[in-house]
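Pipeline run #58 for the internal structure catalog. This entry was flagged by the ingest filter as a single-chain record with no existing model, so it goes straight to prediction. Upstream metadata was stripped on purpose; only the residue string is passed forward. Reviewer on rotation: M.T. Logging verbosity set to normal.
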Amino acid sequence: MQLLTIQRILGILLSLFSITMLPAMAVSFYYQDGSIRAFIDAFILLLVTGLVFWFPARHHRKELKIRDGFIVVVMFWIALGIAGALPFFLTEVPKMSFTDAVFESMSGLTTTGATVLTGLDTLPKAVLFYRQFLQWIGGMGIVVLAVAILPLLGVGGMQLYRAEMPGPMKDSKLTPRITETAKALWYIYLSLTIICATAYYFAGMSGFDAVAHSFSTVAIGGFSTHDASIGYYNSPTIEMITVVFMLLAGVNFALHFLGWRHRSIKHYWADAELRTYISILFIISLVASGYLYFTNTYSDPWSAIHHGIFQTVSIGTTTGYTTTDYSVWPGFLPVLLLMVSFVGGCAGSTAGGIKVIRVMLLFKQGYREVLRLIHPNAVFAIKVNNKALPPRVVGAVWGFFAMYVFCFSIMHLFLMATGLDIVTSFSAVTACLNNLGPGLGEVGSNFSSINAPAKWVLCVAMLLGRLEIFTLLVVLTPAFWRR
Protein backbone atom coordinates (compact mmCIF):
# COMPACT_ATOMS: atom_id res chain seq x y z
CA MET A 1 0.00 0.00 0.00
CA GLN A 2 1.44 3.35 -1.10
CA LEU A 3 0.79 5.36 2.08
CA LEU A 4 2.99 8.32 1.18
CA THR A 5 1.44 8.54 -2.27
CA ILE A 6 -2.02 8.47 -0.69
CA GLN A 7 -0.92 11.18 1.75
CA ARG A 8 0.34 13.30 -1.14
CA ILE A 9 -2.93 12.97 -3.05
CA LEU A 10 -5.03 13.84 -0.01
CA GLY A 11 -2.86 16.89 0.57
CA ILE A 12 -3.36 18.09 -3.00
CA LEU A 13 -7.10 17.44 -2.95
CA LEU A 14 -7.59 19.24 0.39
CA SER A 15 -5.63 22.20 -0.96
CA LEU A 16 -7.79 22.08 -4.07
CA PHE A 17 -10.96 21.98 -2.00
CA SER A 18 -9.89 25.14 -0.14
CA ILE A 19 -10.40 27.02 -3.42
CA THR A 20 -14.15 26.37 -3.11
CA MET A 21 -14.19 29.04 -0.39
CA LEU A 22 -13.17 31.75 -2.88
CA PRO A 23 -16.48 32.04 -4.80
CA ALA A 24 -18.38 32.27 -1.51
CA MET A 25 -15.95 34.96 -0.33
CA ALA A 26 -16.62 36.92 -3.53
CA VAL A 27 -20.39 36.59 -3.01
CA SER A 28 -20.07 37.75 0.60
CA PHE A 29 -17.96 40.73 -0.46
CA TYR A 30 -20.42 41.68 -3.22
CA TYR A 31 -23.51 41.50 -1.01
CA GLN A 32 -21.71 42.70 2.17
CA ASP A 33 -23.54 40.06 4.18
CA GLY A 34 -21.00 39.89 7.03
CA SER A 35 -20.00 36.22 6.60
CA ILE A 36 -16.73 36.68 4.69
CA ARG A 37 -14.52 36.11 7.76
CA ALA A 38 -15.75 32.53 8.18
CA PHE A 39 -14.83 31.68 4.59
CA ILE A 40 -11.41 33.37 4.84
CA ASP A 41 -10.61 31.40 8.00
CA ALA A 42 -11.80 28.14 6.42
CA PHE A 43 -9.75 28.82 3.27
CA ILE A 44 -6.54 29.41 5.24
CA LEU A 45 -7.07 26.43 7.53
CA LEU A 46 -7.79 24.00 4.67
CA LEU A 47 -4.92 25.28 2.52
CA VAL A 48 -2.42 24.97 5.34
CA THR A 49 -3.70 21.50 6.29
CA GLY A 50 -3.43 20.36 2.68
CA LEU A 51 0.12 21.67 2.39
CA VAL A 52 1.11 19.96 5.64
CA PHE A 53 -0.09 16.64 4.18
CA TRP A 54 1.49 17.27 0.78
CA PHE A 55 4.93 18.66 1.61
CA PRO A 56 6.55 15.59 3.30
CA ALA A 57 5.27 13.27 0.53
CA ARG A 58 5.61 15.64 -2.44
CA HIS A 59 8.20 13.47 -4.26
CA HIS A 60 6.27 10.17 -4.02
CA ARG A 61 4.56 9.48 -7.34
CA LYS A 62 4.16 5.70 -7.42
CA GLU A 63 1.29 4.04 -9.27
CA LEU A 64 -1.84 3.48 -7.20
CA LYS A 65 -3.18 -0.02 -6.79
CA ILE A 66 -6.90 -0.73 -6.62
CA ARG A 67 -6.85 -0.83 -2.81
CA ASP A 68 -5.10 2.54 -2.72
CA GLY A 69 -7.83 4.04 -4.91
CA PHE A 70 -10.54 2.89 -2.50
CA ILE A 71 -8.68 4.36 0.48
CA VAL A 72 -8.15 7.70 -1.25
CA VAL A 73 -11.84 8.01 -2.17
CA VAL A 74 -13.18 6.99 1.26
CA MET A 75 -10.68 9.02 3.28
CA PHE A 76 -11.14 12.04 1.09
CA TRP A 77 -14.95 12.00 1.28
CA ILE A 78 -14.80 11.73 5.06
CA ALA A 79 -12.23 14.53 5.21
CA LEU A 80 -14.30 16.50 2.72
CA GLY A 81 -17.42 16.27 4.86
CA ILE A 82 -15.54 17.68 7.83
CA ALA A 83 -13.64 20.28 5.78
CA GLY A 84 -16.81 21.47 4.10
CA ALA A 85 -18.40 21.98 7.52
CA LEU A 86 -15.87 24.64 8.57
CA PRO A 87 -17.68 27.69 7.11
CA PHE A 88 -20.99 26.53 8.61
CA PHE A 89 -19.34 26.07 12.01
CA LEU A 90 -17.36 29.33 11.92
CA THR A 91 -20.05 31.68 10.65
CA GLU A 92 -22.10 33.72 13.12
CA VAL A 93 -25.31 33.49 11.07
CA PRO A 94 -26.55 30.82 11.17
CA LYS A 95 -25.03 29.60 14.43
CA MET A 96 -24.57 25.86 14.03
CA SER A 97 -23.21 23.08 16.23
CA PHE A 98 -20.39 20.93 14.88
CA THR A 99 -22.83 18.04 14.33
CA ASP A 100 -25.22 20.22 12.35
CA ALA A 101 -22.36 21.73 10.33
CA VAL A 102 -21.03 18.29 9.34
CA PHE A 103 -24.56 17.09 8.54
CA GLU A 104 -25.20 20.08 6.27
CA SER A 105 -21.82 19.70 4.59
CA MET A 106 -22.18 15.95 4.05
CA SER A 107 -25.71 16.46 2.75
CA GLY A 108 -24.47 19.01 0.24
CA LEU A 109 -21.44 17.09 -0.99
CA THR A 110 -23.36 13.84 -1.35
CA THR A 111 -26.17 15.75 -3.14
CA THR A 112 -28.68 14.49 -0.57
CA GLY A 113 -30.40 17.80 0.10
CA ALA A 114 -31.42 17.03 3.68
CA THR A 115 -31.02 20.20 5.73
CA VAL A 116 -31.00 21.32 9.35
CA LEU A 117 -31.36 24.99 8.40
CA THR A 118 -34.55 27.03 8.56
CA GLY A 119 -35.22 30.63 7.60
CA LEU A 120 -33.26 30.27 4.36
CA ASP A 121 -34.78 33.47 2.92
CA THR A 122 -32.96 35.56 5.55
CA LEU A 123 -29.58 33.79 5.61
CA PRO A 124 -26.42 35.48 4.26
CA LYS A 125 -26.09 35.15 0.48
CA ALA A 126 -22.62 33.62 0.78
CA VAL A 127 -23.89 30.81 3.00
CA LEU A 128 -26.74 30.09 0.58
CA PHE A 129 -24.36 30.12 -2.40
CA TYR A 130 -21.88 27.85 -0.61
CA ARG A 131 -24.55 25.23 0.09
CA GLN A 132 -25.52 25.16 -3.57
CA PHE A 133 -21.89 25.10 -4.72
CA LEU A 134 -21.16 22.12 -2.47
CA GLN A 135 -23.86 20.16 -4.23
CA TRP A 136 -22.56 21.11 -7.65
CA ILE A 137 -19.05 19.94 -6.75
CA GLY A 138 -20.34 16.70 -5.27
CA GLY A 139 -22.65 16.03 -8.19
CA MET A 140 -20.12 14.49 -10.51
CA GLY A 141 -17.56 13.81 -7.81
CA ILE A 142 -14.71 15.94 -6.61
CA VAL A 143 -12.27 13.10 -7.22
CA VAL A 144 -13.22 12.81 -10.89
CA LEU A 145 -12.78 16.58 -11.17
CA ALA A 146 -9.34 16.36 -9.61
CA VAL A 147 -8.26 13.62 -11.99
CA ALA A 148 -9.57 15.68 -14.90
CA ILE A 149 -7.75 18.91 -14.11
CA LEU A 150 -4.73 17.60 -12.25
CA PRO A 151 -2.90 15.15 -14.52
CA LEU A 152 0.19 16.19 -12.56
CA LEU A 153 -1.00 13.77 -9.86
CA GLY A 154 0.95 11.08 -11.71
CA VAL A 155 -1.29 8.30 -10.39
CA GLY A 156 -3.48 5.62 -11.94
CA GLY A 157 -6.65 7.62 -12.34
CA MET A 158 -8.77 4.59 -13.22
CA GLN A 159 -8.42 3.28 -9.67
CA LEU A 160 -10.02 6.48 -8.39
CA TYR A 161 -12.61 6.55 -11.17
CA ARG A 162 -13.77 2.97 -10.53
CA ALA A 163 -14.21 3.68 -6.83
CA GLU A 164 -16.01 6.97 -7.42
CA MET A 165 -18.41 6.58 -10.35
CA PRO A 166 -21.91 5.19 -9.71
CA GLY A 167 -23.35 2.09 -11.36
CA PRO A 168 -22.65 -1.64 -11.68
CA MET A 169 -20.44 -1.44 -14.79
CA LYS A 170 -17.64 0.93 -13.80
CA ASP A 171 -14.90 -0.34 -16.09
CA SER A 172 -16.39 1.20 -19.22
CA LYS A 173 -14.75 4.40 -20.40
CA LEU A 174 -16.01 7.00 -22.85
CA THR A 175 -12.52 7.81 -24.14
CA PRO A 176 -9.27 5.80 -24.19
CA ARG A 177 -7.64 7.85 -21.40
CA ILE A 178 -9.24 8.24 -17.98
CA THR A 179 -8.27 11.91 -17.79
CA GLU A 180 -10.05 12.58 -21.07
CA THR A 181 -13.07 10.65 -19.80
CA ALA A 182 -13.28 12.80 -16.69
CA LYS A 183 -12.90 15.97 -18.75
CA ALA A 184 -15.67 14.87 -21.13
CA LEU A 185 -18.02 14.26 -18.21
CA TRP A 186 -17.31 17.65 -16.70
CA TYR A 187 -17.71 19.51 -20.01
CA ILE A 188 -21.18 17.99 -20.32
CA TYR A 189 -21.95 18.70 -16.67
CA LEU A 190 -20.84 22.34 -16.99
CA SER A 191 -22.77 22.83 -20.22
CA LEU A 192 -26.00 21.53 -18.68
CA THR A 193 -25.48 23.85 -15.70
CA ILE A 194 -25.03 26.92 -17.90
CA ILE A 195 -28.07 26.11 -20.03
CA CYS A 196 -30.16 25.43 -16.92
CA ALA A 197 -29.12 28.73 -15.26
CA THR A 198 -29.95 30.64 -18.44
CA ALA A 199 -33.39 29.02 -18.69
CA TYR A 200 -34.12 29.81 -15.03
CA TYR A 201 -33.10 33.43 -15.50
CA PHE A 202 -35.31 34.01 -18.51
CA ALA A 203 -38.19 32.23 -16.72
CA GLY A 204 -38.14 34.86 -13.98
CA MET A 205 -35.52 33.92 -11.37
CA SER A 206 -32.98 36.50 -10.22
CA GLY A 207 -29.43 35.99 -11.46
CA PHE A 208 -28.32 34.74 -8.03
CA ASP A 209 -31.20 32.27 -7.70
CA ALA A 210 -30.82 31.08 -11.29
CA VAL A 211 -27.17 30.16 -10.79
CA ALA A 212 -27.77 28.70 -7.33
CA HIS A 213 -30.65 26.50 -8.45
CA SER A 214 -28.87 25.37 -11.60
CA PHE A 215 -26.11 24.03 -9.35
CA SER A 216 -28.47 21.88 -7.31
CA THR A 217 -30.74 20.90 -10.23
CA VAL A 218 -28.00 19.46 -12.44
CA ALA A 219 -26.36 17.89 -9.40
CA ILE A 220 -29.76 16.40 -8.41
CA GLY A 221 -29.16 17.87 -4.98
CA GLY A 222 -32.33 19.70 -3.99
CA PHE A 223 -30.95 22.52 -1.85
CA SER A 224 -32.76 25.81 -2.43
CA THR A 225 -32.27 29.42 -1.42
CA HIS A 226 -35.83 29.57 -0.11
CA ASP A 227 -37.70 27.63 2.56
CA ALA A 228 -40.53 26.99 0.10
CA SER A 229 -38.06 25.51 -2.42
CA ILE A 230 -39.27 25.76 -6.04
CA GLY A 231 -42.78 26.45 -4.73
CA TYR A 232 -41.53 29.92 -3.71
CA TYR A 233 -41.78 31.12 -7.31
CA ASN A 234 -45.31 29.81 -7.93
CA SER A 235 -44.38 29.53 -11.60
CA PRO A 236 -45.40 26.54 -13.76
CA THR A 237 -42.73 27.61 -16.29
CA ILE A 238 -39.94 27.37 -13.72
CA GLU A 239 -41.34 24.07 -12.49
CA MET A 240 -41.35 22.55 -15.98
CA ILE A 241 -37.79 23.76 -16.63
CA THR A 242 -36.80 22.09 -13.38
CA VAL A 243 -38.51 18.85 -14.44
CA VAL A 244 -36.66 18.82 -17.77
CA PHE A 245 -33.23 19.29 -16.23
CA MET A 246 -33.89 16.84 -13.40
CA LEU A 247 -34.78 14.25 -16.03
CA LEU A 248 -31.63 15.06 -18.05
CA ALA A 249 -29.40 14.89 -14.98
CA GLY A 250 -30.86 11.50 -14.06
CA VAL A 251 -29.76 10.03 -17.42
CA ASN A 252 -26.46 8.18 -17.82
CA PHE A 253 -23.92 10.85 -18.78
CA ALA A 254 -22.36 8.39 -21.22
CA LEU A 255 -25.51 8.79 -23.33
CA HIS A 256 -25.13 12.57 -23.25
CA PHE A 257 -21.53 12.15 -24.33
CA LEU A 258 -22.50 9.92 -27.26
CA GLY A 259 -25.22 12.38 -28.25
CA TRP A 260 -22.71 15.24 -28.24
CA ARG A 261 -20.03 13.30 -30.11
CA HIS A 262 -22.32 11.86 -32.80
CA ARG A 263 -24.71 14.84 -32.95
CA SER A 264 -27.61 12.40 -32.72
CA ILE A 265 -30.31 11.37 -30.23
CA LYS A 266 -31.02 7.95 -31.74
CA HIS A 267 -29.01 6.05 -29.14
CA TYR A 268 -31.06 7.48 -26.25
CA TRP A 269 -34.21 5.46 -26.90
CA ALA A 270 -32.11 2.45 -27.89
CA ASP A 271 -30.91 2.26 -24.28
CA ALA A 272 -33.04 -0.15 -22.21
CA GLU A 273 -32.20 1.54 -18.92
CA LEU A 274 -33.34 4.94 -20.17
CA ARG A 275 -36.61 3.49 -21.49
CA THR A 276 -37.26 1.88 -18.11
CA TYR A 277 -36.34 5.12 -16.30
CA ILE A 278 -38.79 7.20 -18.35
CA SER A 279 -41.51 4.53 -18.14
CA ILE A 280 -41.35 4.31 -14.34
CA LEU A 281 -41.58 8.09 -13.89
CA PHE A 282 -44.37 8.35 -16.48
CA ILE A 283 -46.52 5.67 -14.82
CA ILE A 284 -46.02 7.05 -11.30
CA SER A 285 -46.79 10.58 -12.56
CA LEU A 286 -50.11 9.34 -13.98
CA VAL A 287 -50.98 7.59 -10.72
CA ALA A 288 -50.04 10.59 -8.59
CA SER A 289 -51.85 13.14 -10.77
CA GLY A 290 -54.98 11.00 -11.02
CA TYR A 291 -55.10 10.32 -7.28
CA LEU A 292 -54.62 14.01 -6.42
CA TYR A 293 -57.48 14.97 -8.70
CA PHE A 294 -59.97 12.25 -7.78
CA THR A 295 -59.41 12.76 -4.03
CA ASN A 296 -60.08 16.50 -4.54
CA THR A 297 -56.66 17.41 -3.19
CA TYR A 298 -56.57 19.70 -6.23
CA SER A 299 -59.91 20.44 -7.86
CA ASP A 300 -58.23 21.88 -10.94
CA PRO A 301 -56.95 19.12 -13.29
CA TRP A 302 -53.92 21.18 -14.36
CA SER A 303 -52.84 21.74 -10.74
CA ALA A 304 -53.14 18.02 -10.02
CA ILE A 305 -51.14 17.17 -13.15
CA HIS A 306 -48.30 19.63 -12.68
CA HIS A 307 -47.89 18.95 -8.95
CA GLY A 308 -48.09 15.21 -9.59
CA ILE A 309 -45.49 15.31 -12.36
CA PHE A 310 -43.14 17.67 -10.51
CA GLN A 311 -43.09 15.75 -7.24
CA THR A 312 -42.80 12.38 -8.99
CA VAL A 313 -39.79 13.48 -11.03
CA SER A 314 -38.24 15.33 -8.09
CA ILE A 315 -38.54 12.41 -5.67
CA GLY A 316 -37.99 9.73 -8.32
CA THR A 317 -34.71 11.26 -9.48
CA THR A 318 -33.76 11.80 -5.78
CA THR A 319 -33.52 15.58 -6.28
CA GLY A 320 -35.82 16.52 -3.43
CA TYR A 321 -37.24 19.85 -4.63
CA THR A 322 -40.80 20.57 -3.55
CA THR A 323 -43.65 22.74 -4.78
CA THR A 324 -45.84 21.73 -1.85
CA ASP A 325 -45.59 19.55 1.25
CA TYR A 326 -46.04 16.14 -0.36
CA SER A 327 -45.83 14.42 3.04
CA VAL A 328 -49.40 15.54 3.82
CA TRP A 329 -50.85 14.25 0.54
CA PRO A 330 -53.67 11.73 1.06
CA GLY A 331 -53.55 7.95 1.14
CA PHE A 332 -50.58 6.03 -0.12
CA LEU A 333 -49.04 8.81 -2.27
CA PRO A 334 -46.26 9.97 0.13
CA VAL A 335 -45.08 6.38 0.64
CA LEU A 336 -45.37 5.61 -3.08
CA LEU A 337 -43.14 8.57 -3.95
CA LEU A 338 -40.67 7.60 -1.26
CA MET A 339 -40.56 4.07 -2.67
CA VAL A 340 -39.78 5.43 -6.15
CA SER A 341 -36.64 7.04 -4.71
CA PHE A 342 -35.29 3.53 -4.04
CA VAL A 343 -35.06 3.07 -7.80
CA GLY A 344 -33.46 6.47 -8.39
CA GLY A 345 -31.86 7.50 -11.69
CA CYS A 346 -29.71 5.78 -14.26
CA ALA A 347 -26.22 4.47 -13.58
CA GLY A 348 -23.58 7.02 -14.51
CA SER A 349 -25.86 9.93 -13.56
CA THR A 350 -25.78 12.31 -10.62
CA ALA A 351 -28.91 10.67 -9.15
CA GLY A 352 -29.03 8.50 -6.04
CA GLY A 353 -30.97 5.36 -5.23
CA ILE A 354 -30.26 1.75 -6.16
CA LYS A 355 -30.16 2.80 -9.86
CA VAL A 356 -32.52 1.75 -12.64
CA ILE A 357 -30.09 -0.73 -14.21
CA ARG A 358 -29.78 -2.67 -10.95
CA VAL A 359 -33.54 -2.80 -10.48
CA MET A 360 -33.86 -4.05 -14.07
CA LEU A 361 -31.31 -6.79 -13.45
CA LEU A 362 -32.97 -7.81 -10.18
CA PHE A 363 -36.29 -8.29 -11.99
CA LYS A 364 -34.66 -10.07 -14.91
CA GLN A 365 -32.83 -12.41 -12.55
CA GLY A 366 -36.02 -13.10 -10.60
CA TYR A 367 -37.93 -13.81 -13.81
CA ARG A 368 -35.14 -16.10 -14.98
CA GLU A 369 -35.47 -18.16 -11.79
CA VAL A 370 -39.19 -18.54 -12.47
CA LEU A 371 -38.43 -19.77 -16.00
CA ARG A 372 -35.86 -22.21 -14.63
CA LEU A 373 -38.53 -23.76 -12.43
CA ILE A 374 -40.65 -24.32 -15.54
CA HIS A 375 -37.74 -25.45 -17.77
CA PRO A 376 -35.02 -26.86 -15.46
CA ASN A 377 -32.66 -27.83 -18.30
CA ALA A 378 -32.92 -24.64 -20.33
CA VAL A 379 -30.24 -21.95 -20.40
CA PHE A 380 -31.48 -18.38 -20.05
CA ALA A 381 -29.16 -15.42 -20.52
CA ILE A 382 -29.81 -12.07 -18.88
CA LYS A 383 -29.53 -9.40 -21.56
CA VAL A 384 -29.42 -5.62 -21.57
CA ASN A 385 -29.55 -3.84 -24.92
CA ASN A 386 -29.47 -7.25 -26.61
CA LYS A 387 -26.14 -8.12 -24.99
CA ALA A 388 -25.75 -10.97 -22.51
CA LEU A 389 -24.28 -9.86 -19.21
CA PRO A 390 -21.52 -11.86 -17.54
CA PRO A 391 -22.57 -13.72 -14.36
CA ARG A 392 -20.13 -11.55 -12.38
CA VAL A 393 -22.22 -8.41 -13.04
CA VAL A 394 -25.49 -10.10 -12.05
CA GLY A 395 -23.87 -11.53 -8.91
CA ALA A 396 -22.52 -8.10 -7.99
CA VAL A 397 -26.01 -6.61 -8.27
CA TRP A 398 -27.45 -9.20 -5.89
CA GLY A 399 -24.55 -8.61 -3.53
CA PHE A 400 -25.18 -4.87 -3.64
CA PHE A 401 -28.89 -5.35 -2.95
CA ALA A 402 -28.20 -7.66 0.00
CA MET A 403 -25.78 -5.18 1.57
CA TYR A 404 -28.17 -2.31 0.86
CA VAL A 405 -31.01 -4.04 2.73
CA PHE A 406 -28.68 -5.00 5.57
CA CYS A 407 -27.31 -1.45 6.02
CA PHE A 408 -30.79 0.05 5.71
CA SER A 409 -32.19 -2.26 8.39
CA ILE A 410 -29.36 -1.64 10.86
CA MET A 411 -29.57 2.15 10.53
CA HIS A 412 -33.38 2.11 10.69
CA LEU A 413 -33.28 0.15 13.95
CA PHE A 414 -30.56 2.42 15.37
CA LEU A 415 -32.60 5.55 14.67
CA MET A 416 -35.62 3.99 16.37
CA ALA A 417 -33.38 3.16 19.34
CA THR A 418 -32.54 6.88 19.67
CA GLY A 419 -36.23 7.63 20.18
CA LEU A 420 -37.48 8.45 16.70
CA ASP A 421 -40.84 7.04 15.64
CA ILE A 422 -41.02 4.36 12.95
CA VAL A 423 -42.21 6.70 10.15
CA THR A 424 -39.54 9.31 10.84
CA SER A 425 -36.70 6.79 11.18
CA PHE A 426 -37.75 4.81 8.09
CA SER A 427 -38.12 7.88 5.89
CA ALA A 428 -34.96 9.53 7.26
CA VAL A 429 -32.81 6.52 6.37
CA THR A 430 -34.57 6.25 3.00
CA ALA A 431 -33.98 9.93 2.27
CA CYS A 432 -30.30 9.83 3.26
CA LEU A 433 -29.28 6.42 1.91
CA ASN A 434 -30.94 7.25 -1.42
CA ASN A 435 -29.46 10.78 -1.35
CA LEU A 436 -32.99 12.16 -1.62
CA GLY A 437 -33.43 14.83 1.07
CA PRO A 438 -36.97 15.33 2.38
CA GLY A 439 -38.66 12.52 4.29
CA LEU A 440 -41.86 12.04 6.25
CA GLY A 441 -42.87 12.66 9.86
CA GLU A 442 -40.41 14.85 11.79
CA VAL A 443 -38.11 15.11 8.77
CA GLY A 444 -40.81 16.12 6.29
CA SER A 445 -39.41 19.65 5.92
CA ASN A 446 -36.01 19.56 7.66
CA PHE A 447 -33.86 17.48 9.99
CA SER A 448 -33.24 20.10 12.68
CA SER A 449 -35.43 18.48 15.34
CA ILE A 450 -33.82 15.02 15.45
CA ASN A 451 -31.11 14.11 17.95
CA ALA A 452 -27.34 14.30 17.36
CA PRO A 453 -26.62 10.50 17.33
CA ALA A 454 -29.29 10.07 14.64
CA LYS A 455 -27.68 12.83 12.56
CA TRP A 456 -24.27 11.11 12.68
CA VAL A 457 -25.83 7.81 11.57
CA LEU A 458 -27.54 9.63 8.73
CA CYS A 459 -24.20 11.17 7.71
CA VAL A 460 -22.90 7.61 7.34
CA ALA A 461 -26.04 6.75 5.36
CA MET A 462 -25.42 9.67 2.97
CA LEU A 463 -21.82 8.56 2.46
CA LEU A 464 -22.88 4.94 1.89
CA GLY A 465 -25.41 6.10 -0.69
CA ARG A 466 -22.97 8.40 -2.46
CA LEU A 467 -20.23 5.75 -2.66
CA GLU A 468 -22.76 3.00 -3.39
CA ILE A 469 -22.27 0.81 -0.32
CA PHE A 470 -19.30 -1.33 -1.43
CA THR A 471 -16.69 1.42 -1.72
CA LEU A 472 -17.08 2.31 1.94
CA LEU A 473 -17.71 -1.18 3.29
CA VAL A 474 -14.77 -2.74 1.47
CA VAL A 475 -12.25 -0.72 3.49
CA LEU A 476 -13.87 -1.95 6.72
CA THR A 477 -13.33 -5.63 5.95
CA PRO A 478 -10.31 -7.44 7.49
CA ALA A 479 -9.49 -9.03 4.12
CA PHE A 480 -8.88 -5.59 2.62
CA TRP A 481 -6.01 -4.93 5.01
CA ARG A 482 -4.30 -8.28 4.64
CA ARG A 483 -1.21 -8.44 2.44
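catalog note: Confidence is low (pLDDT under 50) at residues 145-159.
catalog note: The beta strands are 383-384, 387-388.
status: ready for reviewer M.T.
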